[in-house]
């Protein structure tokens, strides 16, 4: 934690002066500027995507221009196609769900609704129906099946459970759940922790927001009827501190009373699409900057991080910018498939699973995250099968010209570079199954990752170098190019701040002095000069429309070249704000993460404070330091030479994971690594 008020802390004025005296041969401030506003271009339709200001308008446009192209495909636990929706059918489903919520249940614009689904297409359809009606959705993953008969060392694939009625009391039911496939890779403790985290998030949402209704499908309905659900809800409610009670019925009774539940699976089919014929189309006021498009929450985020367990507000413009920046940064083409395996309830998983396919005009292939954990082979097989564009379902009319038909046939059959993304936990599961250390090893067969040109590993902590090296070694036999592995600095408040994609040089690794780091300084050295030093790997360079600054967390000044500071991000795709409930106490002395300004810089440029400590490393600085060490007759301290003059971001860890003893800065990760390396009998990472 920060201790800048102490006399000898590393953030005091005396410490800053010492840091500047011990500077590097290169003088610069740690600040990048990449605030351009390019427009994405749809190469098939020859249309600038900037003319659209929300995803719903893009959905309507693509329904008119490519109605039979596949937009969403849901796969079961074996990788078989379960549901396939072209644009027209998906649009009709959205219209039908919107009519059901409007006419039958009377939900109005501005109502907050909780979307409690498993990771399936009903969730995505309901999300878009909410945007049509102007509802404010709050997505939350459904917990695992609480069946007492299941193997507690297993995690079920498809969720089961549910609840019907209007505000009925949760007292349990004898409804039996469907049998579920087991996942032998997750312990009963992991299942319980995940369930409790989701249920605590549910009560925090109802504490801070007046939830009008809970929306779900048949799976949600069965889950809420299950006899174990009520006891789990009561148990988790007792651990939550109620501050605002915006949904009072959930806290005013010994039994847990949830808001009214509406089952969208009962919606009737609609013959018309969004527009004049159906009478359902979004109104202009729904897309104003101050109107929330969605509130996201990450129940798995560790407490203490910026944005952990808080409702994150994003408007439609921000969602559009997230899709645009993805398309521009990774050069996504029209029709390029997206295999969505990450959680679609927060972060980049939300963007990839619910939005990017519509924006890019390609299919989104939805895989349950739990199915991935149970059998990563499904994910590898899907990537192999969909390495090219999906063949469109449209039939050529007799009036189509030969040139047009030939162009589209070649367009459909041309192979594409794929973009896939995993979090570190999903990557761990994949690598452990490939090694055979977690269950039986996978039969790879004809699996090939040759088409993957952008293998994104998403996280916002210090780069786990061992895992990235293991990924290169284990995925190499599957024909994955090592240069395709792309680390993404994906923070809850800035989902895509940096990337390693398409750099001239490879990963930048430096060896820094742990002694200097204790004083908040970055000093490159060698393993021979400092055996206690630390190897660090970069998280890439800034993405399009993004600027990063390393700022002193107390003086709010930009740090010099050799100083450690807080990572600040300025981007049009960052989270807009936290949700602040009525009566929320504002503490002016507590640093706010949004709309931060750098002292002495343009006050119109506003940043998001990530709460992570790190530094920017310049390729020119690296070359000069190498020359200085070469003149001194010492060996080079880095394995790669950047030499491009660009800034690479290095993340050291969260502020909350750092601590000071006698004014010296320490990180818990370094202390743990020291303990693990002290004796052979000390288990790695506690296992």
Structure, explained:
The chain folds into 2 domains: 13-30 and 509-539 and 545-579 and 591-686, Luciferase, Domain 3 (Luciferase, domain 3, Roll), CATH 2.30.38.10; 41-393 and 401-486, Rossmann fold. Helix 3 crosses helix 4, helix 5 packs across helix 7 (229-237) and helix 8 (316-330) packs across helix 9 (347-360). It has a 5-stranded mixed β-sheet with strand order 13-14-15-16-19, sandwiched between helices. Strands 4-3-12-11 form a 4-stranded mixed β-sheet, sandwiched between helices. Mean pLDDT is 81; it is low at 1-8, 146-185, 388-415 and 631-645. The protein is globular. Helices cover 29% and strands 19% of the residues. It has 687 residues and is of the alpha/beta class. It contains 17 helices and 26 strands. Strand 1 (41-42) and strand 2 (47-48) form a beta hairpin.
List the helices and strands and how they pair.
Blueprint: H1 13-21, E1 41-42, E2 47-48, H2 55-65, E3 70-75, E4 81-86, H3 87-104, E5 112-117, H4 121-133, E6 136-141, H5 188-208, E7 211-216, H6 218-225, H7 229-237, E8 260-263, E9 294-296, E10 312-314, H8 316-330, E11 338-340, H9 347-360, E12 364-366, H10 369-374, H11 376-385, H12 402-413, E13 418-423, H13 424-435, E14 452-459, H14 465-475, E15 485-491, E16 494-499, E17 509-512, H15 514-518, E18 534-537, E19 541-542, E20 546-551, E21 565-571, E22 577-578, E23 608-618, H16 619-631, E24 647-654, E25 658-661, E26 664-667, H17 668-676
Parallel strand pairs: 3-12, 5-6, 5-7, 7-8, 11-12, 13-14, 14-15
Antiparallel strand pairs: 1-2, 3-4, 9-10, 10-22, 15-16, 16-19, 17-18, 20-21, 21-23, 23-24, 25-26
Helix pairs in contact: 3-4, 5-7, 8-9, 13-14
């Amino acid at each position: 934690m920060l201790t800048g008020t102490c006399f000898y802390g590393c953030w005091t004025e005396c410490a800053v002066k010492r840091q500047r005296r011990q500077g590097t041969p290169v003088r610069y401030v740690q600040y990048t500027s990449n605030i351009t506003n390019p427009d994405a271009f749809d190469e098939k339709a020859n249309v600038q995507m900037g003319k659209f200001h929300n995803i719903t308008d893009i959905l309507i446009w693509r329904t008119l221009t490519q109605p039979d192209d596949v937009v969403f495909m849901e796969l079961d636990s074996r990788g078989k196609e379960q549901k396939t929706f072209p644009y027209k059918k998906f649009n009709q489903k959205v219209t039908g769900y919107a009519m059901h919520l409007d006419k039958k249940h009377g939900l109005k614009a501005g109502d907050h609704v909780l979307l409690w689904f498993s990771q399936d297409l009903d969730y995505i359809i309901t999300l878009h129906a909410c945007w049509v009606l102007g509802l404010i959705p709050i997505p939350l993953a459904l917990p695992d099946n609480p069946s007492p008969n299941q193997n507690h060392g297993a995690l079920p694939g498809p969720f089961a459970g549910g609840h019907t009625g209007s505000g009925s009391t949760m007292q349990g039911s004898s409804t039996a759940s469907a049998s579920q496939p087991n996942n032998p890779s997750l312990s009963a403790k992991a299942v319980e922790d995940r369930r409790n985290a989701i249920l605590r998030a549910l009560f925090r949402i109802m504490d801070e927001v007046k939830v009008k209704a809970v929306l779900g499908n048949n799976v949600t309905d069965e889950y809420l009827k299950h006899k174990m659900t009520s006891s789990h809800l009561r148990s988790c409610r007792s651990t939550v501190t109620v501050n605002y009670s915006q949904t009072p019925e959930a806290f005013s009774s010994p039994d847990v009373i949830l808001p009214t539940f509406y089952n969208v699976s009962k919606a009737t089919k609609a013959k018309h699409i969004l527009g004049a014929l159906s009478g359902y189309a979004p109104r202009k006021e729904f897309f104003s900057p101050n109107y929330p498009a969605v509130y996201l929450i990450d129940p798995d985020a560790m407490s203490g991080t910026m944005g952990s367990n808080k409702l994150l507000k994003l408007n439609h413009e921000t969602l559009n910018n997230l899709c645009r920046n993805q398309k521009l940064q990774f050069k996504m083409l029209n029709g390029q498939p997206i295999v969505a395996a990450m959680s679609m309830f927060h972060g980049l998983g939300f963007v990839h699973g619910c939005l990017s396919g519509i924006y890019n005009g390609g299919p989104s292939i939805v895989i349950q995250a739990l199915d991935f954990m149970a059998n990563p082979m499904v994910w590898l097989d899907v990537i192999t099968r969909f390495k090219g564009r999906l063949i469109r379902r449209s039939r050529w009319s007799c009036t189509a010209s030969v040139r047009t038909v030939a162009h589209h046939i070649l367009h459909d059959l041309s192979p594409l570079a794929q973009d896939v993304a995993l979090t570190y936990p999903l990557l761990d599961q994949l690598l452990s199954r490939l090694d055979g250390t977690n269950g039986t090893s996978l039969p790879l067969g004809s699996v090939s990752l040759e088409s993957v040109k952008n293998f994104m590993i998403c996280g916002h902590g210090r780069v786990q170098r061992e895992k990235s090296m293991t990924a290169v070694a284990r995925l190499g036999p599957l024909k994955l190019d090592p240069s395709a592995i792309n680390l993404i600095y994906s923070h809850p408040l800035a989902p895509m701040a940096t990337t390693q994609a398409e750099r001239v040089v490879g990963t930048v690794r430096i060896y820094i002095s742990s002694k200097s780091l204790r004083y908040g300084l970055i000093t490159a050295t060698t393993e021979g000069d400092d055996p206690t030093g630390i190897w660090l790997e970069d998280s890439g360079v800034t993405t399009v429309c993004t600027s990063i600054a390393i700022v002193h967390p107390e003086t709010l000044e930009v740090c010099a070249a050799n100083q450690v500071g807080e990572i600040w991000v300025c981007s049009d795709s960052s989270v807009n704000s936290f949700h602040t409930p009525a009566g929320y106490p504002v503490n002016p002395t507590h640093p706010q993460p949004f709309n931060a300004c750098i002292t002495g810089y343009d006050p119109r440029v506003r940043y998001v404070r990530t709460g992570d400590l790190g530094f920017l490393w310049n390729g020119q600085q690296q070359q000069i330091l190498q020359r200085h060490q070469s003149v001194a007759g010492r060996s080079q301290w880095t394995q790669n030479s950047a030499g491009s003059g660009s800034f690479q971001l290095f993340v050291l860890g969260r502020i909350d994971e750092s601590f000071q003893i006698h004014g010296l800065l320490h990180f818990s990760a370094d202390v743990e690594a020291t303990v693990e390396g002290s004796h052979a009998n000390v288990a790695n990472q506690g296992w």
